[in-house]
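U., I forgot to send this yesterday:
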Amino acid sequence: MLTIDGIQYDVKCEVKRTANVTSSDISGIMLDKNYFNDVTGTYMSYQVTLKYPLYDQNKYAELYEVLTAPVDGHVFVMPYNQGVLTVTARIATVPDVRTELDSGRKYWEALQFQIVANHPTRAMSLGQVIARGRAPVPDISQPNEGDTYSWVEGRWSKTAEYPDADEIAY
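Result:
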C-alpha cells in the first residue's frame, strides 16, 4: 500500500530507506584542528520500486502523473522502524521502462521513484544542545572577527586572538 497526499494506491512496493544526517555550511575543521559539526538534522529519503507491473495502464498513468507533478512536495506515509512516518518530501527522480511484447502489446512497468524529505525528520533544538553541555556560542561579550574558540573543560575558551582591524598599526 502506498499513500500519497492522502490517496491510497493498492500496489506492492520495495522500499529502500536512507537517513541523511546533514550539516550546515559552517561545519568544518577549525584553526585548532578540531572538527566543528553544526548538524542541521536528519533528512529521510526513500527509493520506492513497484514490485509488479500495474496491468491497468490507466491506474499506472494516474500514479505517474501524481509522481511527476511539478510541485514542491507531496505528503507521503512511509514505513519507519516498526510503524509509519508521515513526511513531506520532494520527488527527486521517476524512472520507468516501456516494454513491448512479441504480441505487439506495449505497457509501462518497473516504476521507481526517489523522494527526499523537505524538512528534517529529526533535529536537535537549542535547548537540547545546551542540555548536552555545550553552550550555543562562546560566552565572550566582545569577540573580534577572526578569534577562534575551543570547547575545553566544559566551557568555551579563546584559542587564538586577532586584533580588531581598526587597532592594527602599520
